[in-house]
Amino acid sequence: MPHSLRISVILPSVMLCLVGASCEDEGPNRDAATDADLDVDGPDADTDRDIDDREGDAESADADEGEADVEGDGGSWQGGSDVSIVGVHWFSGDGDIFDGALPVGRRGWNVELVFGSNDVGHRSHALEMARQGRDAGLVNIIRIDYRPGERQTVPTDRGAFEVWSQEFFEVVDLFLAEGLSTRFIVGNEPMLDGICPRLYADAYIYLHERRPEGIELLVAGPNAFGYIETCASYLTSVDWIGRVADFVGEADGFAIHTYGDPTFRGGECADPRAPCRRPADPFDWGFQHFRDQIDAITAGSGRFAHQPFYITEFNTDINGLGHPDPSDNYAADVGGTGRGWIELAFEAIRVFNEEALLDPDLPQVFALCWFVDRNDSEWSTFSLHDRTGALGTAREDLVAAAHDPANHSVPARWVP
Questions:
Q1: Quick check: is 304 in a domain?
Q2: Helix (H) or strand (E) run with residue 75 in it
Q3: Is residue 166 pLDDT above 70, yes or no?
Q4: Dist. CA 83–CA 410, nearest whole Å
């Protein structure tokens, strides 16, 4: 999201390589055949743990998650974050959501987006909203899409990469100049736009090799629970992100999405802490889908385990704008526990991060951001700004999560 549907649109299967593209798409950890990209010409075809800012002007807006290590005998302290893991996509300006007792720049996260890297209007709006987030003490993550509308994530023509990269970093410079962000997502749910793993990886690599110092350039995750048939083989969302991780080689971090419908399969997936996967399922159909994606990215070998992971979208919807939406199905009492779905989702992330303390092959999740807070478009049935009915309850639960000290940081870990 934002897309009208999260489930992938299935296009006729076509296998051909773009001019100048490699047809040898087998990743180093995959046994699958080549992953040729579809060239679709459509319209316009997301030390010491130094908490000081990377940018002088970012002192009140952006904290360093401690990517440098503190070395000791036989190992080092790595990772960790002093920023609350609680966040929102499209902050509404309602500052009371977050814990004002926390220092500025550590109260949580806000995801904003620039719908088109060449669109001045979208740039200006995103800058305005990022200022609002910074002034509320939040850390901004900025998603930059190639073009607004369909096929928006990255250019489908590699010949357009040079101009696109210039546009992309012009936008980055605008946010850096005001100390508004140092974290930038390359597009949104590329698989939903028909982008195959090799093409997306090539686009990411092109930017990564040219990025300015001091920023995190984040790989965009797929549309959760999706499929694509227009690559060399049929891929699920989990397959897709695993292939991308194979191909990029290096990445500064990942921005993934996960969801869970408490009413799906008669409540079988109600608890976000529990798996929701039957033997024939290709992946987990609930909130724990985030683990499937992380497992595919790390490939069981610990690759990318020291890069930050951000969940930049989560809620109780698994089918885009199709009902039920969070306004219909948010659960204030999950399975008779007396606890709301959001509270349990944050517990699930804390449990994962506790596992990562003991397993150096697992990454840490630094943010869990509700989609959405501000109602900027057609997502009114997702917006916490509504404050009525089920959404009002969801907002109360997010406020409680933001004020829970257990969510205020992610501890560093000792890695031998």
A1: yes
A2: strand 75-78
A3: yes
A4: 8
Amino acid making up residue 76: S
- Please state the separation of Cα 45 from the chain's center in Å: 23
**Residue 124: how many other CB atoms lie within 10 Å:** 12
From the number of C-beta atoms within 10 Å of its C-beta (0-12, 13-18, 19+), residue 95 rates as middle
Task: Specify whether the CB–CB gap between 245 and 299 falls below 8 A.
Answer: yes
Structure tokens at 252: 């500064």
* CA–CA distance, 260 with 345 (Å, rounded to integer): 9
Which pLDDT belongs to residue 60?
A: 40
Is residue 35 pLDDT above 80, yes or no? no
* pTM, rounded to two decimals: 0.85
Boundaries of domain holding 315: 56-415
Q: What is the pLDDT of residue 27?
A: 38
Amino acid identity, position 178: E
- Packing angle of the helix pair 120-135, 161-177 (nearest 10 deg): 30
Query: Cα(407)–Cα(403) distance, rounded to whole angstroms?
Result: 8
Number of folded domains that form the chain: 1
For residues 48 and 40, the answer to whether their CB atoms sit within 8 Å is no
Residue-wise pLDDT for 295-333, tens only, equals: 999 998 899 999 999 999 999 999 988 889 999 999 999
**CATH code: domain of residue 245:** 3.20.20.80
Burial class (CB in 10 A: 0-12, 13-18, 19+), 224: buried
List CB contacts of 11: < 8 A, sequence separation 6 or more: 38, 40, 194, 229, 230
Please name the helix (run of DSSP H) or strand (run of DSSP E) that holds residue 298, with its range, or none: helix 289-298
Taking a C-beta distance cutoff of 8 angstroms, is the pair 215, 251 a contact?
Answer: no
What mean pLDDT, rounded, does the chain reach?
A: 86
